[in-house]
């Protein structure tokens, strides 16, 4: 057994290490600065209670992006230096964000140990590579992201840090499953490398009826395609969809995890998942090949998902509403009923209508999965989602892309339980259209303006807040832009009082609410590594079944014109068009 010593290394603060709702994200070159990562990790250890550090078990893994392997070695040595008992690492350093949450909540070591937290190495849906993005976030013992009380402490610590603790360990082989043990003056320290997928697969099999999904995937009527965008979902796709559920290996696209995501942008939307979009018949050029019945994509760390039918896009807002509406019948985990449902504020109100119809508890929360986690820990929420392609349930405390795909496959299997042998297949498009016929349709789109000058973005938002003081003036502007748009009846900055811990979150997005139920929402996003991203959300509710089949962009065109004019988007940003439309 290798002996090691602990040393204290002097350092100085950087001042720019404030973690957002998704942790700390910067360019790789920033993280590669001497002591930059070390400062953040030590500041995190210092923000935790002693029992979550001394003698504790820590998970360290991520989406496999560039710099992850270096970061794992640095954090492992610092864990030893800070007196942790063991570190768990997914083989090759790979664990999806939902799998990390599952490992914290479910995995028991051979000695009975349980993890008390995790460093997840990911910048989610942002690009990877030497000149791209890296990120790190800490998840707590419930498997969910650190709450604001902890992230605020971390940030305060980063501003005053003077030293960090580390150990003179050799690098550990993270490619081979097994335990490497070391010793020091206070006892033993272990690094266990374990199979990245087995704990997660076990959890999925306890939630879904794999046999019914296997019947669906084996039917000659049903074809399937899954695109991991060269993210960490590739470490799970073959094991689940091919080995467990019997899909053809040819149905998997880009399922080899790569440090740079194959040079692509691992964001599962219609803009960046180009290959899948084309295969599903939604590309600009018409293919002679018949598209699959079902397609899905994941982001870099596999917590987001995009669901597609043949030549048909399912909005994330519709997706969570449809899962909630069908969960009790189609998914064994929910057979006893749903405790409640929740959505992020910018997400369309499609879920609200389902909740009201099914008499379910309903919550509207700020953007950030930790708000859902609070509700779940209190037993108030079973299914939740956000418009940014995040869907999940109370099985873990993160959004879960593969879970969402299995939920959709379960619904398809249930709807087709009688007709796989004969009769017409119930398709993704059928399910969505039937949902609209029952609950109405929420026409919805999101415009992203990425890497906008941060000062200009703040000025735009401040102008929108100031405008809210006079609805008369707002409505004069609106009618001047588009006379046939409904009147604005309420405008505010969304504020949320958590029903569990009574904490208050302010400035969570600017809202303009119209008399007919339409909404405009403006938010500054914290998920980019530089500049600012302005997100504009546009929604219109239509309950007349004869009017639910329009093209979304056509239906929303008048509201889009109002949003761009009201915000003076081009004037402030210099942009004549968004970077991404979803």
Question: Characteristics of this structure?
Answer:
TATA-Binding Protein, globular, 3 domains, Alpha-D-Glucose-1,6-Bisphosphate, Chain A, domain 3, 8-stranded mixed β-sheet, 6-stranded antiparallel β-sheet, alpha/beta
Describe, in short, the structure shown.
The chain is an alpha/beta fold and 582 residues long.
For the sheet with most strands, the description reads: 8 strands, mixed
Strand arrangement, major sheet: 1-9-10-5-4-6-7-3
Which shape, going by the Cα principal axes?
globular
Helix/strand-derived category reads alpha/beta
**N/C terminus separation:** 55 Å
Which parts are unreliable, with pLDDT below 50 for 5 consecutive residues or more?
Answer: none
Task: Give me the number of helical elements.
Answer: 18
Q: Report the strand count.
A: 27
Strand content: 15-25%
Write down the Rg.
24 Å
CATH fold-level name of the largest domain: Alpha-D-Glucose-1,6-Bisphosphate, Chain A, domain 3
Write the CATH homologous superfamily of the largest domain.
Alpha-D-Glucose-1,6-Bisphosphate, subunit A, domain 3
- CATH-defined architecture of the largest domain: 3-Layer(aba) Sandwich
Helix content: 25-40%
Q: Look at the structure and give the mean pLDDT.
A: 95
* Total domain count: 3
Assigned CATH class of the largest domain: Alpha Beta
Describe the protein's topology.
Blueprint (H helix, E strand, L loop, with lengths): L1 E2 L2 E5 L13 E4 H4 L4 H12 L9 E6 L5 H14 L4 E5 L6 H10 L10 E5 L11 E7 L8 H13 L2 E5 L10 E7 L2 E8 L3 H10 L2 H9 L5 E4 L6 H11 L7 E2 L20 H6 L14 E5 L6 E5 L2 E3 L1 H15 L10 E4 L5 H9 L3 E4 L3 H9 L5 E4 L3 E4 L7 H15 L12 H12 L1 E12 L1 H14 L3 H11 L6 E6 L2 E2 L6 E2 L4 E5 L4 E7 L6 E11 L9 H16 L1 H5 L6 E2 L1
Parallel strand pairs: 1-9, 4-5, 4-6, 5-10, 11-12, 11-13, 16-17, 16-18
Antiparallel strand pairs: 2-8, 3-7, 6-7, 9-10, 13-14, 14-15, 18-19, 20-26, 20-27, 21-24, 22-23, 24-25, 25-26
Helix pairs in contact: 2-3, 2-5, 7-13, 10-11, 10-13, 16-17
GO molecular function, one term: magnesium ion binding
EC number: 5.4.2.2
Protein name: phosphoglucomutase (alpha-D-glucose-1,6-bisphosphate-dependent)
């Amino acid at each position: 057994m290798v002996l090691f010593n602990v040393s204290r290394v002097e350092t100085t603060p950087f001042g720019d290490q404030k973690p957002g709702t998704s942790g700390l994200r910067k360019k790789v070159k920033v993280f590669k600065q001497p002591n930059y990562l070390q400062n953040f990790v030590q500041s995190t250890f210092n923000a935790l209670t002693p029992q979550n550090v001394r003698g504790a078990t820590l998970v360290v893994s991520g989406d496999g992006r560039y710099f992850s392997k270096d970061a794992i070695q640095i954090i492992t040595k610092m864990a030893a230096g800070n007196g942790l008992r063991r570190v768990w690492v997914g083989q090759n350093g790979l664990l999806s964000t939902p799998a990390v949450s599952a490992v914290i909540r479910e995995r028991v070591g051979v000695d009975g140990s349980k993890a008390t937290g995790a460093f997840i190495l990911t910048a989610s849906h942002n690009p990877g590579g030497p000149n791209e993005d890296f990120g790190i976030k800490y998840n707590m013992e419930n498997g969910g992201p650190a709450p604001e009380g902890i992230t605020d402490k971390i940030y305060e610590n980063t501003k005053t840090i003077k030293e960090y603790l580390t150990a003179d360990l050799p690098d550990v082989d993270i490619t081979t499953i097994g335990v490497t043990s070391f010793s020091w003056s206070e006892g033993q320290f272990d690094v266990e490398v374990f199979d990245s997928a087995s704990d997660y697969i076990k959890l999925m099999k306890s939630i879904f009826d794999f046999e019914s999904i296997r019947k669906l995937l084996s039917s000659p009527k049903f074809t399937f395609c899954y695109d991991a965008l060269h993210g960490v979902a590739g470490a799970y796709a073959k094991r689940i969809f091919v080995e467990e559920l019997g899909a053809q290996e040819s149905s998997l696209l880009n399922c080899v995890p790569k440090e740079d995501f194959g040079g692509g942008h691992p964001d599962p939307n219609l803009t960046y998942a180009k290959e899948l979009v084309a295969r599903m018949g939604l590309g600009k050029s018409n293919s002679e090949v018949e598209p699959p019945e079902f397609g899905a994509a994941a982001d870099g760390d596999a917590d987001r998902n995009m669901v597609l039918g043949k030549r048909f896009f399912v909005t994330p807002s519709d997706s969570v509403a449809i899962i909630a509406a069908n969960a009790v019948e189609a998914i064994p985990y929910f057979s006893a009923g749903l405790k409640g449902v929740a959505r992020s504020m910018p997400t369309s109100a499609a879920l609200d209508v389902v909740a009201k119809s099914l008499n379910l508890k309903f919550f509207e929360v700020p953007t950030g999965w930790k708000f859902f986690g609070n509700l779940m820990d209190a037993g108030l929420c079973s299914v939740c989602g956000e418009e940014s392609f995040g869907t999940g349930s109370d099985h873990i405390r993160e959004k879960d892309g593969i879970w969402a795909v299995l939920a959709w496959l379960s619904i398809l299997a249930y709807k087709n339980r009688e007709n796989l042998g004969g009769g017409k297949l119930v398709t993704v498009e059928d399910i969505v259209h039937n949902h609209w016929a029952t609950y109405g349709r929420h026409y919805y789109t999101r415009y992203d303006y990425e890497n906008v000058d941060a000062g200009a973005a703040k000025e735009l938002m401040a102008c929108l807040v100031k405008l809210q003081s006079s609805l008369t003036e707002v409505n004069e502007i609106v009618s001047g832009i588009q006379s046939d748009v409904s009147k604005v009846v309420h405008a505010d900055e969304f504020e949320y009082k958590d029903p569990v811990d009574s904490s208050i979150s302010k400035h969570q997005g600017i809202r303009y609410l119209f008399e007919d139920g339409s909404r405009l929402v403006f938010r500054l996003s914290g998920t980019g590594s530089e500049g600012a991203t302005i997100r504009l959300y546009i929604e219109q509710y239509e309950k007349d079944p004869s009017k639910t089949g329009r093209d979304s962009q056509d239906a929303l065109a008048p509201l889009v014109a109002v949003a761009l004019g009201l915000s003076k988007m081009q004037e402030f940003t210099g942009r004549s068009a968004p970077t991404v439309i979803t």
